[in-house]
Amino acid sequence: MDRMYIIGRALFEHGIKMHDGQGDMERAAGELAERLPAALAPLARLAYNYRWSWAPGGHELFSSVDPERFAMCGSNPVRLLLEAPARSLHRAAADERLVAAAGALEQAVADDLARPPAGPLSDPTRPVAFLCAEYGVHVSLPVYSGGLGALAGDLLKEASDRAVPLVAAGLMYNKGYFRQRIDASGWQHEYWLDTDPDLLPAVLVTGASGDPLTISVPIGEREVAARIWRVQVGRVPLFLLDTRCPENSPMDAWITGRLYDGDPQTRLAQYALLGVGGVRALRAVGYEPAVIHLNEGHAALAPLELARDGRDNDERRSLQAALARPHADGEEPGWQPERRSLHAALKRARERTVFTTHTPVPAGNDVYPAHEVQAALGWLAAQLGGSVEELISLGHDEGADDAAPFGVTQAALRMSRASNGVSRRHGEVAREMWASLWPGLEPDEVPIGHVTNGVHVPTWIGPAMRELLDARLPAGWIERADDPSVWEAADEIPGEELWRARCAQRAQLVELVQRRSVADRLQRGDVPGYVSAAARSFDPDALTLGFARRVATYKRLELLTRDPEWTLALLGGERPVQVVLAGKAHPRDEEAKRSLQSIFGLKGAREIGERVVFLDDYDLATGAALVRGCDVWLNLPRPPLEASGTSGMKSVFNGGLQLSVLDGWWAEGYDPGNGWAISGEVDHDHDAQDERDISAFHRLLSEEVLPAFYERDEAGLPQRWLAMVRASLRTLGPRFCATRMLHEYLDGPWSG
Questions:
Q1: Which CATH number is 648's domain given?
Q2: Fewer CB near the last or first residue (10 Å), C or N of the chain?
Q3: Per-residue DSSP letter, 180
């Protein structure tokens, strides 16, 4: 590393601090406010902080400005205020209740953000830095695909709620994740839409000159530039890197083109940008994190940047010492950088790095041929003062030869002081899966722990259930959601109140299904009778089952229709059952696409058209509607391949019950009386396992679920069902909220 870089770092550390985008965000909110009637200025300021999105009434407030336009804008408040016609804005400004609500919400958000930092990591100048490839903060910010992103978004929101100093880094994708269209045969087609970040609740971070602040990352034989967008998630800043810079070639500008791009070399470049660039961006805006959290292996290269900076600091101190020593007249100091191994440089970086692995599925742990890694990351190794062979060996299985492929998960495990899975069972699976990296240790001795996922309750709970729990649980329950004593009051919720809330949220889902089913089926080119069948027949009082998640073969979506005769008898029986399905298969996963298509094989049957709906283009908004409205959440993964899952947890807080395989989170959540369980035993004879699980699934639905839902007392209440809902809230509420998850990270991996 040349001396000018080291001297530059010394100057930076002695007071030259770059802008962090806060002023840019205030300026953007002010400019938006100038476009609006003065009474609506609070909405402009709220629009640039996603804190409104989980405040009670926040969505309704923006929607009330112009409901149709807000829906067309994908619930993006900035676009709403830019695009709403003048008549809508003036009508809203004249609405005293709307203006008062906007002022009250702005004050509530300001009071929340004014709280001092809290917890064991309370120094805002030394925050936790969270690095992830995707963030499901809100449907209007299209930088997510599924569960990993939703989990990341929930953690940021929970950190804001608990006033924990946290900053986050990711990528601003030009086109986000793919959009989905299903044709009449059930085959998935993908398309992408351009994202205009100037229309998002995001701002470009600028430097002292007013020009966009950029960082550069060595990828291949060139330096790739990236500008930085700031998104505010409550009190948590999220910085997103964007390679659409004029100094980049078209190929390099495409690095942030699509989330999980199908080209392996583009993904490897994304991982270098996320890991190395993420750390550089945080430093450029003025943060020196105490802890770097790699959320999945995509950010595995971040410790290399920490190691580089540690090495540079050592050389800077060595240079300063050499310059300070007395020298004879005309004598040069003679300082030269010390040659150190990459592994030595990583020692201190490892002490600041923690890693969460999210998948036991081999395809979810990317590997790259050694020559591709050498071509993409060779310059990075040189900047670190090590060899590219040393760098590649970090991603090798133990004992592998030099030509073996590079695995991002292996590299992240080696470069982290602490690693964890995302459920108790996943921790066990991960220890066995990666035991070879610790030769001589038994699997149960492998240093991979677990922090079970949790969900951000204010984001996912529906209005009716929120109102009920606000009234019946202790005051301030949502701030103490991980306290079991808070949930004891669930046993005392009157049956009529609980049933009323559940029926209200089911009715909202049915209304959505009736509307969306017609639109989706028309776009597929279905015949008129089928198009309108669900809109006529979906019933707000019928037992509603939900199955919505990323479509992968191990999720076993096809089990729902494996026995057509039984399926049609269930749907056409005297006790009505209706099913809502949603999910996306990866564009290159042909087998998953076929499993998705299989559920359309019975669409010609009347019962299917009337009682089963697949909602195209699954996203956060659709997911929220389903977990709020469905009575039973189905999950049928092939064990032990479900790392955790979080959609079922979201269902819990909405009074939904689980019917799931004992895998992932449900393996530690299930108790007799709080839901239903199918064996999680591992069986390598998949056909035999499928047959057993189908049989168990059918028995539970027919003999336990339907009777519990449809047996009513004199008041028309399903008392056995309601008792299970209370038990679910009481036993699962404190254990599967993000409050508990955040506390475990603070007390565990983040604490060191």
A1: 3.40.50.2000
A2: C
A3: E
